From TrEMBL:
Organism: Salegentibacter mishustinae
Boundaries of every MacB-like periplasmic core domain copy: 21-250
UniProt entry tagged with the keyword Membrane: yes
PANTHER family: ABC TRANSPORTER PERMEASE YTRF, MEMBRANE COMPONENT OF TRANSPORTER-RELATED
Protein name, as recorded: Multidrug ABC transporter ATP-binding protein
Entry GO CC: plasma membrane
């Protein structure tokens, strides 16, 4: 029940020496401020790193061919082999739990020769032969026109979707792009769309906008690839992790290409899900460090409050003696001291939270006016759960800070307290 007299007494006790109370409260305020700022900074770093993935389906692995390191079934080590389109169907039929299997072929690459011509303009770009599912695995915003569809695949249409970086290099600023033609390695493709990759596309943000996508079938026909597949992007469904399915995928590919079952070097692969989990583990560790450091700093403030409450109890020995003589119970004395301790802790802690929130808002405002596409830091923030956790820590800290002084207070005998000068 609310007691006006009790709260007036609490405020009067804490304001009797306001400078001492202010210095004591600063320790708690600083501790909770450090805790919130560290958590927000960790979240900002996490957001920046995840933004760099550009929305890529993280439950994905990439697979490509390498040379076998062991002879098998009369075939020598060090030989070359290629994936085939039949491998894709075999994976779909024999490995349940896969959502997307995207065979891919590629021209160009870093340091490649100029492979794309439009009029007098030339450029060296990555050109991918893909299926429509790739947009689900490497999300991008189609800024004009459309992406590849299955009619393009079936009819082997020579159409292309170009990145905004390709557009800037091969076209004038306001020039119409859709319906124009590019010559890729001497073969004409009509541009039907433009895209912009989200984030950095998992790599260099600028290079991610300088890619060209064409239908897989048209790519194979135009560049004499036959049924060869350069590499694959394989995504598991939400009920399975690609890491748990990886061994079955690799075993099937090895059996289809007469590769020794224990030859782990013959099939190259990159497990994005596994790497993503490592990154998530890093951020969990950073959060734990933030709580550890913040609570240690907060603990120093709590010790200060406990000390000041011991002094307050000492100064109010006569008062406590009178109250005990008039029939006050030990619980009422203990409750009074604990209430003062909790009140001081929560008020100073909330001041720290408000101050930290203001700093975070200022940082977000500054970042909103900057180009953060190349930054590994974005939207530092704390959620409601962190604030509630901080409040729980404050209440527990207040109880801890007032516990020893409260116990000392109820140990004072009324007669001894009344004799104290």
């Amino acid at each position: 029940m609310f007691s006006r007299d009790k709260w007036s007494e609490i405020i009067e006790a804490l304001s009797s020496n306001w400078f001492r109370t202010l210095l004591t409260a600063f320790g708690v305020m600083w501790g909770i401020f450090i805790l919130v700022i560290l958590l927000a900074a960790g979240k900002g770093l996490e957001n920046g790193v995840k933004k760099g993935f550009g929305g890529i389906a993280t439950n994905t692995m990439f697979m490509w061919t390498q040379t076998p390191s062991k002879p098998y079934k009369g075939l020598p080590k060090g030989r070359n082999y290629n994936f085939k389109t039949g491998d894709v169907e075999a994976l779909r039929e024999n490995v349940p739990g896969l959502r997307f299997i995207s065979p891919r072929n590629q021209l160009g690459g870093f340091g490649g020769n100029n492979n794309v011509v439009r009029g007098l303009q030339t450029g060296a770009f990555n050109v991918y032969g893909d299926y429509p599912e790739i947009i689900q695995q490497e999300p991008m915003d189609v800024t004009a026109g459309r992406f590849i569809n299955y009619l393009d695949i079936e009819e082997k249409r020579k159409v292309a979707i170009i990145g905004e970086g390709v557009r800037r290099e091969l076209y004038e600023k306001d020039e119409e792009v859709l319906g124009t033609y590019l010559k890729i390695n001497g073969v004409n493709f009509m541009v039907i769309g433009t895209y912009k990759k989200k984030g950095g596309g998992g790599g260099n943000a600028e290079e991610a906008q300088k890619e060209i996508y064409v239908p897989f079938t048209a790519f194979s026909q135009a560049f004499n690839m036959g049924d060869t597949v350069g590499w694959m992007a394989i995504t598991a469904n939400d009920e399975n992790s690609i890491t748990s399915l990886k061994s079955r995928i690799l075993d099937l590919i090895k059996s289809r290409h007469s590769i020794h079952p224990e030859d782990d070097r013959a099939v190259g692969n990159f497990d994005l899900y596994e790497e993503f989990n490592k990154i998530n583990g890093l951020f969990v560790a950073l959060k734990a460090v933030a709580y550890f450091v913040g609570i240690l700093v907060l603990l120093s403030g709590i010790i200060g409050i406990s000390n000041i409450m011991l002094i307050v109890v000492k100064e109010r020995t006569n008062e406590i003696g009178v109250r005990r003589a008039l029939g006050a119970t030990p619980w009422s004395i203990r409750g009074q001291i604990l209430m003062e301790s909790i009140f001081l802790t929560i008020i100073s802690g909330m001041a720290g939270i408000i101050f930290a929130t203001g700093i975070i808002a200022a940082v977000n405002y500054a970042l909103s006016g900057m180009d953060t596409s190349e930054m590994m830091f974005a939207n530092p923030s704390v959620d409601l759960g962190v604030v509630l956790t901080a409040l729980v820590i404050l209440v527990c800290s207040g109880l801890l800070a007032g516990l020893i002084p409260a116990q000392n207070a109820i140990k004072i005998k009324p007669v001894d307290a009344l004799r104290t000068e």
